[in-house]
Amino acid sequence: MATPFRIKRSSVPSKRPSLADIQLGELALNTYDGRLFAQKDTGGVGVGTTVTLLNVWTENIGGGTYYNEGNVGINTTLPPSPLSVGGVYGLDTTITTVASTSATTIESFSISVYRSSRVQVQITQGTDYQAADLLVIHNGSTASVVEYGAIATNDYLGTFSATISGGNCLLQVNMSSLASSTVKVLSQKITV
After folding, report:
1. Containing domain of residue 182, as a range?
2. Mean of pLDDT over the chain
3. What is the pTM of this model?
4. What CA–CA distance (Å, rounded) separates 171 from 178?
């Protein structure tokens, strides 16, 4: 009778093996998360220096979709945005609930990482809607925003401004009424 082949495993949620748990060339499986790990030789000398996750995508069982829980980089090793391409382009989304007429931040980015952003905004307030395209830029101390396209189903629901605060460029909305609104933002940023 054949002997079953088993790799090291754990059923503890989010448990990741340490260097001491596995040897170079050995695999470890988290059976709860479905994550597969191996020791990685980053020095090229046959000695494991880190444990790496081999399957970074998570499957939505039965849903036919896959997702990643962190930032994804294409042609970049340290992606600063949920999707970063070539170390130049960053793509991000936010959803903010606003129930104020004061300036409310709906998007923020580090002024040391990004210089400008093209932003698409959609506001929903009951059965009224507004969509706008904006450009945001800063010089390290002053931020500017221009709205170059806007449409609304009735009256416009809000206006936009930009400012620098604590090392970040903030895109803000000033709503016309106190009624609760949902503001969805898609931003495409370009590095400094």
Report:
1. 81-191
2. 91
3. 0.78
4. 19
